[in-house]
Specification:
Elements (H helix, E strand, L loop, with lengths): L12 H25 L8 H8 L7 H22 L7 E2 L7 E2 L1 H13 L4 E9 L2 E8 L6 H13 L6 E8 L3
Parallel strand pairs: 4-5
Antiparallel strand pairs: 1-2, 3-4
Helix pairs in contact: 4-5
Keywords: Membrane, Transmembrane, Transmembrane helix
InterPro entries: DUF6286 (IPR046253)
Pfam family, one: DUF6286
């Protein structure tokens, strides 16, 4: 049995919502046109008025702008439909089916870095497969970078295969 990977919302979710709203607006336009043509309302048809405004011999600037905008919107919809959803969790190493969220990895790495000798404070940021650790060191602890790398590596061993980079700054007195 194949287990599905946890994924984020697909890229086409927002274009789909926007497309649904545009289709609903088009339905309202056609309903108003039908009501006006059958005499159910005293208002003239919005669709007839719009088409009459478009009947100029010379194309107006707003028609050209609307055409370009709709072409770009359609291209955006097309691209978004084929972009796959990104993974929302990292897979842990091993035979089991274990997934860990990026925030949990960041929290574990920050905690491990803060437990390294000479570290006053640590913050982490995970981007794809690269974990950046920013550490504030106590004065006189330049060698703490290696300790941070070892501490974070030990804590995340077996959870995720990440490239760890440490950026350390010595704190003032």
């Amino acid at each position: 049995m194949k287990i599905r990977e946890p994924r984020r919302r697909p890229a086409a979710a927002w274009p789909a919502v926007l497309g649904a709203v545009l289709l609903a607006a088009l339905a309202v336009l056609f309903a108003q046109h039908t009501a006006a043509e059958r005499g159910w309302t005293a208002q003239p048809s919005w669709l007839r008025e719009a088409l009459a405004a478009l009947h100029d011999r010379e194309p107006s600037v707003w028609v050209l702008a609307a055409g370009v905008a709709s072409a770009l919107l359609g291209l955006w919809f097309l691209v978004a439909a084929f972009v796959p959803a990104r993974r929302s969790h990292l897979s842990a190493e091993g035979p089991g089916d274990l997934w860990i969220s990026p925030r949990a990895v960041e929290a574990m790495a920050a905690d491990a870095a803060e437990r390294a000798p000479g570290v006053l404070h640590a913050a982490t940021e995970l981007r794809r497969r690269r974990l950046k650790v920013k550490a504030l060191l106590a004065p006189g602890h330049e060698a703490a970078v290696a300790d941070i790398l070892e501490s974070v590596g030990d804590r995340l061993a077996g959870l995720a295969d990440l490239e760890v980079a440490v950026q350390a700054k010595e704190g003032g007195r």
